[in-house]
Amino acid sequence: xxxxxxxxxxxxxxxxxxxxxxxxxxxxxxxxxxxxxxxxxxxxxxxxxxxxxxxxxxxxxxxxxxxxxxxxxxxxxxxxxxxxxxxxxxxxxxxxxxxxxxxxxxxxxxxxxxxxxxxxxxxxxxxxxxxxxxxxxxxxxxxxxxxxxxxxxxxxxxxxxxxxxxxxxxxxxxxxxxxxxxxxxxxxxxxxxxxxxxxxxxxxxxxxxxxxxxxxxxxxxxxxxxxxxxxxxxxxxxxxxxxxxxxxxxxxxxxxxxxxxxxxxxxxxxxxxxxxxxxxxxxxxxxxxxxxxxxxxxxxxxxxxxxxxxxxxxxxxxxxxxxxxxxxxxxxxxxxxxxxxxxxxxxxxxxxxxxxxxxxxxxxxxxxxxxxxxxxxxxxxxxxxxxxxxxxxxxxxxxxxxxxxxxxxxxxxxxxxxxxxxxxxxxxxxxxxxxxxxxxxxxxxxxxxxxxxxxxxxxxxxxxxxxxxxxxxxxxxxxxxxxxxxxxxxxxxxxxxxxxxxxxxxxxxxxxxxxxxxxxxxxxxxxxxxxxxxxxxxxxxxxxxxxxxxxxxxxxxxxxxxxxxxxxxxxxxxxxxxxxxxxxxxxxxxxxxxxxxxxxxxxxxxxxxxxxxxxxxxxxxxxxxxxxxxxx
Length: 632
Known about the structure:
The structure is a single chain. This protein is mostly beta strands. It folds into 3 domains: 70-170 and 368-497, YVTN repeat-like/Quinoprotein amine dehydrogenase (Methylamine Dehydrogenase, Chain H, 7 Propeller); 174-348, YVTN repeat-like/Quinoprotein amine dehydrogenase (Methylamine Dehydrogenase, Chain H, 7 Propeller); 509-630, Cupredoxins -  blue copper proteins (Immunoglobulin-like, Sandwich). 11% of the residues lie in helices and 38% in strands. Strands 8, 9, 10, 11, 12 and 16 form a 6-stranded mixed sheet that branches. Strand 5 (139-149) and strand 6 form a beta hairpin. The longest helix is centred in the first third of the chain and has 15 residues, at 46-60. It is globular. The model is unreliable at 1-42 (pLDDT under 50).
């Protein structure tokens, strides 16, 4: 079966009892494939539809003063940030700058943020796709969130106790980190990430051929954020996920041809999912069976066809998402240009690596046909899977056990329901679904186009994140949420799994460099307001208590490099201060008991005001001071 045929073939070829796309449209919104589910053969009456919709809406409404049941962490796409939402209300709670510059918090401006981004950082953009939360024994532990930057080949770590980025790693030897997942058991030792694009080695302009290019699968130590090892693969790499034993990770490849042109990437009827044996890779590295590339000291092992470290499982066609079922039994690869998903039995992988199976496809236990453009699959913990169908603009709910029965020749329909979404869904994510604790309450579908769903706001449209109630037998759409460019994925965790600080502790490592410098200068950050001159470098130490800075004027000379340290002495939750130096591009946030610092050149003689730009008091406007810059 050819890829173009897969993409355009009619859903009328669905399994027995299924409905074609054309026949389905009239019933899809709530009833879905009603006859196939045993819920009745007729489309829901108008009254039943209204009652079901009202019931679902009542579940999702969070009244003023009430708290959401879940935290949702959304990737910010090419805004380079992470967004924090409450679910099911879908209220935006916070934005966490990661790879971007943010004038509100001073991220990318303050010295503390530059300690993370790199003081020589020239990348002012990012493309954040996949947010994932650290785990212990297969459950979210709420310690860290990790996110990729496809644009500049980076991976970031966010401390969830303060919701701030604390580490960013540039991954060497590769380009475009895309798919990212975490080791689930016994704990998150590794962050696994795929480099999408093949490049020549060395990439120094001496060779531009695709034939001699390759990419790599990467493992990053979750605590040190150093790259632990890399694995050379055939083809390219897309999405990835890990099992619940700590032994296997699987990744999809959509360009096994290593083609540059679009037609070339669709030439093969099947590409593959490559499975990595983590234990064997670690053993190879420990035994010294690796090489290094260029100036990088990261161990690199060869996982191309024929390696004992990997296995290549053929799957159709240009596969995209790769998702592990919460019971730990299956990897599911989503076909994209095939209307199918491929179910890989994880318990067969030991035999595959031991050479006990006839061929790689012997680990495939089902390949259900779902609809046009399957991209990502999520789970409810009750044996059902939910797959986005990009071309059909639908979510398909289907039963994994029944799909396996159908693959083995039984006449059973595995599709439970199809629901129209708006429009062209990419990622979807059910509550707690990447852990053992998947609870099957809520499903978020991140649709790429909103078209007519919201008030027009110019040629650039928002995307549409839709909330669906999956707690019952039927999926029920309850909310449309416009989002700015461009969330790719999200993750939902229970609110009790995240423990945030209300105020900083004075020993927080986030501003350790400021504490260290103050100690060298003989300054007590919590008490002193003074100016320290070191040649043409001037360090200004200021304490603040709303509504005043405890230094309202300081003098420097034209051309001085000035570093201002502000310590917020307020110990009351939510009394954040700011510091903005007018006409100097300087702005930062200082939360209760935090120290923040910023460095700039005082190149303009005269009077320059600074003020608090975070509202903190009824006399907020009076919280200001002056920098006097004397002519050189």
